[in-house]
Amino acid sequence: MKKLLVIGAFAICLIISAQTNPSKGEFVTWAKDQLKLESKNKYLDFGIDLLGEKLISKFTTKKDYVFFSVYEVKALDKDIKVVGLFNHFIPISKK
């Protein structure tokens, strides 16, 4: 009985994670918001609002693994990887 309960809970978690796997558009919006948080300049914020989504989208690749996604942003000499899971984003590397 306990084994069946654990399997059921695991199956529910997998279904929920598949349903809440964030899209590339959601990632781009999140990344733009993160850039604005780090920016302390209102002119830079304006530029991010104006061009941020297009540029981030252009330099971002998404690897979809059904239950989660890995986003990789390669711009200039930076390589940033972020995991998207349960409608949240978790940075895993910055090079």
List its salient traits.
95 residues, alpha+beta, 4 strands, single chain, 4-stranded antiparallel sheet, elongated, 3 helices
Description:
The radius of gyration is 17 Å and the shape is elongated. Strands 1-2-3-4 form a four-stranded antiparallel β-sheet. The chain is 53% helix and 28% strand. It has one domain (22-94). The protein has 95 residues and is of the alpha+beta class. The N and C termini lie far apart (47 Å). Helix 2 (24-38) runs antiparallel to helix 3 (42-58). The chain has helices spanning 2-19, 24-38, 42-58; strands spanning 60-64, 69-75, 78-85, 88-94. The protein contains three helices and four strands, in the order H-H-H-E-E-E-E.
Question: What are the SSEs and their pairings?
Answer:
Layout: H1 2-19, H2 24-38, H3 42-58, E1 60-64, E2 69-75, E3 78-85, E4 88-94
Antiparallel strand pairs: 1-2, 2-3, 3-4
Helix pairs in contact: 2-3
Précis, in short:
With 95 residues, this protein is α+β, with helices and mostly antiparallel strands.
- Molecular shape: elongated
Structural class determined from secondary elements: alpha+beta
Write the element-wise H/E pattern from the N-terminal end onward: HHHEEEE
Structurally, the number of domains stands at 1
Number of helices: 3
Number of strands: 4
Helicity, in percent?
40-55%
Report the mean per-residue pLDDT as an integer: 92
The residue ranges in which pLDDT falls below 50 over 5 or more consecutive positions are none
End-to-end Cα distance, whole Å, is 47 Å
The strand order across the widest sheet is: 1-2-3-4
